[in-house]
Amino acid sequence: MEITIKQLQDYLLEHYKERGIDQSLFMKLVEEIGEVADVLNQKAGRKAAQSTDLHQKLGEELADVIHYAIAIAALNDIDISQAIVNKDKLASLKYKHKFNLEEFVNLLNENK
């Protein structure tokens, strides 16, 4: 199943709107980032592997990071899709990328 960022943001707003607190969600986000770092250290051999399927574990931890980041955006009425596009435009100029995200998506759509 594929979902859009907008669908996820709407779902998380519905889930957290009555009880979501930015600060607690932020603390969970930081915790999950630490778990991503832990899995990456295991994959690189800098730490003993705690899981036999580090690829799956990394996916799960990255999903958690995305979950909490988008939940924070939803509770603060931030259109995270637009924020990503706008931020990427600035980064593309700064780092002299061949094209930005919006241009890339347009190219993909033209080639369909």
Assign the CATH architecture of the largest domain. Orthogonal Bundle
CATH class of the largest domain: Mainly Alpha
**Unreliable runs, pLDDT <50, ≥5 residues?**
none
Kindly state the mean pLDDT as a whole number?
A: 96
Radius of gyration: 17 Å
Query: Would you tell me which CATH topology of the largest domain applies?
Result: Helix Hairpins
Shape: globular
Helix percentage range:
over 70%
Secondary structure tally: strands: 0
Instruction: Report the biggest beta sheet as strand number plus sense, adding barrel if it closes.
Output: none
Strand proportion = under 5%
Number of structurally distinct domains: 2
Order of helices and strands: HHHHH
The DSSP helix count reads 5
- Amino-to-carboxy terminus distance: 20 Å
What does it look like?
With 112 residues, the protein is mostly helical. The chain folds into 2 domains: 1-78, Orthogonal Bundle (Helix Hairpins); 79-112, no CATH class. It has helices at 5-16, 22-43, 54-75, 80-94, 101-110. The longest helix is centred in the first third of the chain and has 22 residues, at 22-43. The protein is globular. The protein starts with a helix and ends with a helix. The mean pLDDT is 96.
